[in-house]
């Protein structure tokens, strides 16, 4: 292969004037340059000169590719070298619209050209030049010779440069597009490379022609088969017609024989009946004379029976009255029993309460007795102390002489005189001290009493709280038990309701199933009729291509809500058949007649008359024309317009009434639920179960399914629990719940009492605490005063003691006392001890008496409560006694009423026996009368039966004769004519309201029945063995023969026009045979042409695909191989469907980078996608490779490692037959190329310029 030596540009895009891009003998050339220099324009120049359209070169028109200096001066240059206008001062510089562009700069060039100099394998140069003329068109030259575009492309293709496949170019962005394209896009790419895409249009055209020919041939074959079937059918019908005529004659003869035998039998029976009637009338006169005496006896017995029945009725009324009174008294007992039970329950409750209160009273009495006992003990102890104190004084007292006493008295007087003032004050203080001590002791007693009362109340409160808590626990437990029982009760009721609901559901379901089963037989019959109709329509479609189908099958409501309305609006035309022409419709009608098929309505499209639609309803809210609510083939519009007529579909009845009644628009209004208001104003609503469109077809399997469903339904009903068992459990739980609720009521009452008692005790405790809080400060205050008084007393005592010591000093020395106070102490210590002891006794008595008074008051209160409870108990006992007395009185009254009732029942039995005797007499007399009457009635019945038999046979005879006259059956007659018969049978048309006739009238009726109207039938042709009227087998044999012949005739169902139709069909068969042969020839030719193109397309595609699939793996390995991964990755192509038409299937491209698992292409990284896409491009290029390969910035998304791999691959494959021209900005790629073409922008001349450098000189 050759190589691209150089590229010359003149005024092309950013290149002003003449420029040369020299590639020389380098097989790896890189075009580099800064952004905006115009290096990508060199890619556009190569594409342009090699025939690529301007739309692929970032330009809308060829003129846009011509250099424009003014634009470049005032525009911003993009990275790809294109110019963008810059907006300044509200105007657009370099505007290129219309005349403004022409006048802006007349010096801009109007033409441009690019020339590629190519050197082939033998060293010859080829100059391919493409010029943009002044007119904005392209001019092509080869070696300076003007050629056409086709010749230009052929010259390029001769060097394997394929413009359509673009196997020599990879534009910027193509790599990303190839990496993200779908399997179908990849298939199209391979079709372009292989050239099989050129056969696509022809392939599809020939395939359509072959399919059409095959369909036409199959249609002609099917039509021929249908006509052959018709011919065989008409041949069979011809045989059936001849056989039908023979059997018809035989059946007519059998019918005449049967009629003759029937007429003979009727006449024979009439004669016998007439003779027997005369005999019975003679015997009837004797029986009537014996009946009158027995009727008189019967009347007398009936009068006695009526009197006895009145007596019985009177006693029965008395019994009912007594039973009613007895029932009223029983009803009065019910509330009394309830009150007794209620009061008895209250008595039990009061008894329990009395026991509790009595227990509390006894405890209080015991406490009072204990306090009294303690008080008595204190009094005894005090008396004992007084006695002991007196004895002690006698035993321990010290005796003094009278002189000493006198001296003591004298000295005491002196001391009193000297300390009289202090003594007076001391006495006052002592009095004050005693008063204070009494006050303090009184206050202390009160405080101690209140403290004791508070402690006692706290103890009682604790006891009451314990009992209250226990009662609360009981209430809580009972409430829980009641809730549990209620849940159980509600569960039983819920289960009962659920069972009842389930039973009702099953019963309703059973009724529905029975209704469905009832409709099943009708459904199956309808299904069979519809099946026959569908088969006939299918047959018509086969025989007559113009048959389209039924209206209901050819249209479909646009929305589901219109189903009911559309079906109702179409009416009987729902089942009409649409045909293409009136001729086809007539042929179909003839076919139905020949087949003896029920009539069908046909709507011909060619001459059906369609009335204009009333457009007044258009635009009305809630209404639209029926034809606007259905979808159908536009070719059927005339038929659909006829079927829909002037009907409209309304959303509701109000809209329909408004249109028809208020607006008075003459249309047929149908609502969504199927209700219709007709043009005349009549209204129709509802539909039956056999509604069109929703027909339910019942087959045997449906009926069996219904039977199984009914059986299962019955099993489910039987499996439901019985209601009586549920009622027993419900009553048990209800009784337990009532008992628990009563216990809860009692416990709540007791709890309320505890709460009340606790509240009372709390109030008492609060009162005691308030009193304690009130008296304790007073006690402390008085105690403080007492201490102050004692201090003062001690002070005065010391002053007095000093005086006494001076006065009694000698007296004390002589008697041996330290001082006078020691003397007085010995004599007064016993008095002081006694006084202290007496104070303690007084304090204890005061405290015990206070507690006694408190407990006595509580005891009195308890006694009062106990008394009220006992009074209530007495009242309840009195009420119970009163209720018991009332009950006894009512029961006594009921006993007397029951005795009276028993007496009345005995009297009733006696009267009933008497009535039975009278009834027996009446029955006996009635039996005698009836016996005689039955004899008369028997004779009359016999006569009536004979007359009826006579009239019936006469009527049957003349009805048979009239039938023969109507059906023109030739009955042999000896005399008269069937025309003499009256038009109606008088015997069968008597007045039903006429009075009973007498014997004379009966005779007249018999005479009329025997009238033969002058007709005498000839029975000579009737065989003797057929004249026996009692032999039923003869009639059966004759009837069986007629039935057999009729059945055979019905089975034959001959077509009497079969011979005429046979000739027409045979002629049509010949024409069909010719058309079939012609269709076979056309199909064979179309199939051969299609197979030839198919084979070419497959061969080209398969060859390219096989080559690319084999190359892709090695190319991808070469691209991804490195020192770290010497084996590289794996890649392969796979067709989605294994078929003989691979160009119609998608091709999936799978790539697995080194040491990575398989993933779809969209899950690869950007660099991995680029490497995979480049591998695919190189593999595709290897199939019919062009001599050079131009790559525009394919390394934009690659890192340095992948750029290095691309560089190595290009270096390894660059050489003769494979020239690489790469546009790149990455040094890793272009620094190892063989040659460099540098593109830069010269701002002075406003143009892109190039430099060429051969890097091989620097290696």
Number of helices: 25
Radius of gyration: 69 Å
Structural class: alpha+beta
Q: How far apart lie the N and C ends?
A: 27 Å
Output mean pLDDT.
Answer: 79
Parts with pLDDT < 50 across at least 5 consecutive residues: 70-74, 85-104, 396-400, 688-699, 985-1000
Global shape:
flat
The strands making up the biggest β-sheet line up spatially as 2-1-8-9-10-11
Q: How much helical structure, as a percent, in the residues?
A: 55-70%
Give a brief description:
This protein is α+β, with helices and mostly antiparallel strands.
Detailed description of the structure:
With 1259 residues, the protein is an alpha+beta fold. Helix content is 65%, strand content 11%. Strands 2-1-8-9-10-11 form a six-stranded antiparallel sheet. A six-stranded mixed sheet has the order 12-27-28-3-29-30, with helices on one face. It has a five-stranded mixed sheet with strand order 17-19-20-21-22, sandwiched between helices. The chain is flat, with a radius of gyration of 69 Å. The protein starts with a strand and ends in a 5-residue tail after the last strand. Residues 70-74, 85-104, 396-400, 688-699 and 985-1000 have low confidence and may be disordered.
Q: How are the secondary structure elements laid out?
A:
Elements: E1 3-12, E2 15-22, E3 28-32, H1 39-49, H2 69-73, E4 75-77, E5 83-85, E6 87-88, E7 91-92, H3 98-104, E8 112-119, E9 125-132, E10 138-142, E11 145-147, H4 149-158, E12 169-170, H5 174-180, H6 183-194, H7 200-288, H8 292-396, H9 402-418, H10 420-543, E13 547-550, H11 551-554, E14 555-557, H12 563-570, E15 577-579, H13 582-594, E16 602-604, E17 623-625, E18 630-632, H14 637-644, E19 647-650, H15 653-662, E20 668-671, E21 676-677, E22 683-684, H16 700-719, H17 723-807, H18 809-815, H19 820-966, E23 973-975, H20 999-1009, E24 1016-1017, H21 1032-1052, H22 1058-1120, E25 1130-1135, E26 1147-1152, H23 1166-1182, E27 1188-1192, H24 1200-1213, E28 1219-1223, H25 1227-1230, E29 1235-1242, E30 1247-1254
Parallel strand pairs: 3-28, 3-29, 12-27, 15-16, 19-20, 27-28
Antiparallel strand pairs: 1-2, 1-8, 4-5, 6-7, 8-9, 9-10, 10-11, 13-15, 14-18, 17-19, 20-21, 21-22, 23-24, 25-26, 29-30
Helix pairs in contact: 5-23, 6-22, 7-19, 7-21, 7-22, 8-19, 9-17, 10-16, 10-17, 10-19, 19-20, 22-23
């Amino acid at each position: 292969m050759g190589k691209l030596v150089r590229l010359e540009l003149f005024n092309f895009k950013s290149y002003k004037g003449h420029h040369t891009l020299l590639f020389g003998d380098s097989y790896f050339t890189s075009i580099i340059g800064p952004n905006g220099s115009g290096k990508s324009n060199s890619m556009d120049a190569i594409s342009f000169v090699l025939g690529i359209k301007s739309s692929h070169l970032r330009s809308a028109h060829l003129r846009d590719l011509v250099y424009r200096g003014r634009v470049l001066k005032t525009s911003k240059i993009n990275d790809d070298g294109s110019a963008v206008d810059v907006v300044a001062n509200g105007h657009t510089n370099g505007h290129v619209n219309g005349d403004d562009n022409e006048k802006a700069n007349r010096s801009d060039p109007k033409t441009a050209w690019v020339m590629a100099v190519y050197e082939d394998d033998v060293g010859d140069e080829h100059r391919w030049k493409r010029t943009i003329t002044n007119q904005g068109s392209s001019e092509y030259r080869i070696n300076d010779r003007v050629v056409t575009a086709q010749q230009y492309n052929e010259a390029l293709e001769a060097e394997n440069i394929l413009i359509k496949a673009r196997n020599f170019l990879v534009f910027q962005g193509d790599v990303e597009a190839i990496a993200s394209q779908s399997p179908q896009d990849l298939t199209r790419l391979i079709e372009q490379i292989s050239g099989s895409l050129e056969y696509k249009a022809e392939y599809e055209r020939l395939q359509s022609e072959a399919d059409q020919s095959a369909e036409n041939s199959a249609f002609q074959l099917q039509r021929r088969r249908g006509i052959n079937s018709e011919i065989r059918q008409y041949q069979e019908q011809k045989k059936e017609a001849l056989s039908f005529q023979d059997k018809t004659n035989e059946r007519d003869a059998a019918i005449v024989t049967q009629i003759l035998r029937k007429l003979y039998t009727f006449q024979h029976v009439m004669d016998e009946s007439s003779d027997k009637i005369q005999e019975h009338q003679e015997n009837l006169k004797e029986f009537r004379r014996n009946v009158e005496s027995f009727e008189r006896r019967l009347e007398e017995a009936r009068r006695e029976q009526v009197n006895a029945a009145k007596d019985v009725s009177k006693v029965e009324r008395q019994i009912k009255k007594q039973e009613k009174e007895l029932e009223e008294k029983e009803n009065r007992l019910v509330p009394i029993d309830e009150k007794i039970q209620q009061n008895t329950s209250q008595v039990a409750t009061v008894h329990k309460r009395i026991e509790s209160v009595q227990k509390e009273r006894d405890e209080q009495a015991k406490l009072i007795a204990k306090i009294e006992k303690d008080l008595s003990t204190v009094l005894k102890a005090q008396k004992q102390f007084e006695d002991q104190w007196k004895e002690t004084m006698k035993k321990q007292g010290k005796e003094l002489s009278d002189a000493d006493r006198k001296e003591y008295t004298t000295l005491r007087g002196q001391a009193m005189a000297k300390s009289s003032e202090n003594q007076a004050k001391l006495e006052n203080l002592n009095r004050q001290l005693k008063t204070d001590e009494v006050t303090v002791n009184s206050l202390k007693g009160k405080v101690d009493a209140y403290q004791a009362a508070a402690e006692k109340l706290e103890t009682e409160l604790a006891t009451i709280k314990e009992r209250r808590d226990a009662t609360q626990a009981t209430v809580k437990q009972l409430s829980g038990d009641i809730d549990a029982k209620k849940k159980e009760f509600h569960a039983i009721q819920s289960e009962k309701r659920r069972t009842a609901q389930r039973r009702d559901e099953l019963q309703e379901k059973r009724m529905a199933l029975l209704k469905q089963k009832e409709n099943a037989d009708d459904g199956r019959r309808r299904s069979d009729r519809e099946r026959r109709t569908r088969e006939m329509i299918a047959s018509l479609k086969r025989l007559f291509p113009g048959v389209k189908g039924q209206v209901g099958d050819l249209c479909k409501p646009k929305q589901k809500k219109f189903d009911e309305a559309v079906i109702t609006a179409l009416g009987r035309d729902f089942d009409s058949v649409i045909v293409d022409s009136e001729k086809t419709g007539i042929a179909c009608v003839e076919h139905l007649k020949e087949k003896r098929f029920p009539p069908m309505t046909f709507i011909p499209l060619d001459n059906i008359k369609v009335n204009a639609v009333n457009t007044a309803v258009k635009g009305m809210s809630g209404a639209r024309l029926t034809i606007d609510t259905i979808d159908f083939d536009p070719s059927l519009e005339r038929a659909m317009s006829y079927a829909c007529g002037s009907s409209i579909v309304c959303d509701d009845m109000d809209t329909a009434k408004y249109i028809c009644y208020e607006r008075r628009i003459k249309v047929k209004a149908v609502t969504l639920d199927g209700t219709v208001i007709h043009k005349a104003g009549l209204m129709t609503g509802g539909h039956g179960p056999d509604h069109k469109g929703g027909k339910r077809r019942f087959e045997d399997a449906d009926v069996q399914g219904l039977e199984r469903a009914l059986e299962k339904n019955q099993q489910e009903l039987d499996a439901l629990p019985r209601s009586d068992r549920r009622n027993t459990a419900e009553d048990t739980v209800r009784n337990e719940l009532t008992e628990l609720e009563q216990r809860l009521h009692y416990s709540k009452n007791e709890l309320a009492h505890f709460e009340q008692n606790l509240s009372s005790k709390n109030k008492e405790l609060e009162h005691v605490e308030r009193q304690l809080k009130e008296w304790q400060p007073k006690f402390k205050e008085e105690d403080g005063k007492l201490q102050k008084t004692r201090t003062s007393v001690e002070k005065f005592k010391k002053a007095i003691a000093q005086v006494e010591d001076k006065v009694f000093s000698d007296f004390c020395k002589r008697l041996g006392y330290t001082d006078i106070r020691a003397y007085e102490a010995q004599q007064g210590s016993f008095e002081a001890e006694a006084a202290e002891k007496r104070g303690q006794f007084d304090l204890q008595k005061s405290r015990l008496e206070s507690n006694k008074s408190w407990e006595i008051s509580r005891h009195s209160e308890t006694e009062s409560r106990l008394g009220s409870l006992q009074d209530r108990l007495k009242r309840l006992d009195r009420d119970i006694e009163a209720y018991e007395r009332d009950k006894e009185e009512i029961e006594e009254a009921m006993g007397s009423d029951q005795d009276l009732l028993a007496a009345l029942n005995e009297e009733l039995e006696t009267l009933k026996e008497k009535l039975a005797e009278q009834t027996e007499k009446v029955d006996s007399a009635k039996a005698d009368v009836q016996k005689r009457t039955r004899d008369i009635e028997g004779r009359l019945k016999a006569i009536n039966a004979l007359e009826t038999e006579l009239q019936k046979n006469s009527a049957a005879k003349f009805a048979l004769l009239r039938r023969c006259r109507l059906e023109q059956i030739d009955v042999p007659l000896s005399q008269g004519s069937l025309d003499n018969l009256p038009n109606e049978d008088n015997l069968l048309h008597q007045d039903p309201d006429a009075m009973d006739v007498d014997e004379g009238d009966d005779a007249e009726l018999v005479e009329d029945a025997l009238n033969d109207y002058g007709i005498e039938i000839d029975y000579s042709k009737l065989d003797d063995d057929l004249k026996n009227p009692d032999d039923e087998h003869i009639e059966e044999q004759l009837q069986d023969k007629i039935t057999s012949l009729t059945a055979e005739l019905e089975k034959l169902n001959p077509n009497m026009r079969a011979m005429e139709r046979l000739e027409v069909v045979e002629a049509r068969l010949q024409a069909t045979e010719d058309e079939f042969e012609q269709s076979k020839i056309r199909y064979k030719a179309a199939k051969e042409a299609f197979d030839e193109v198919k084979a070419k397309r497959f061969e080209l595609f398969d060859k390219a695909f096989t080559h690319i699939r084999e190359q892709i793996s090695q190319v991808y390995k070469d691209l991804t191989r490195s020192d770290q991964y010497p084996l590289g990755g794996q890649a392969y192509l796979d067709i989605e469907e294994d078929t003989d038409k691979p160009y119609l299937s998608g091709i999936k491209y799978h790539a697995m980078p080194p040491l990575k698992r398989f993933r779809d292409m969209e899950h690869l990284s950007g660099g991995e996608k680029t490497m995979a896409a480049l591998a695919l491009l190189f593999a595709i290029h290897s199939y019919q490779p062009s001599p050079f390969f131009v790559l525009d910035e394919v390394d934009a998304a690659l890192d340095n490692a992948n750029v290095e791999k691309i560089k190595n691959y290009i270096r390894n494959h660059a050489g003769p037959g494979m020239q690489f021209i790469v546009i790149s900005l990455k040094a890793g790629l272009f620094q190892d190329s063989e040659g460099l073409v540098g593109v830069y922008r010269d701002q002075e001349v406003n143009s892109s310029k190039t430099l060429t450098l051969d890097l091989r000189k620097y290696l």
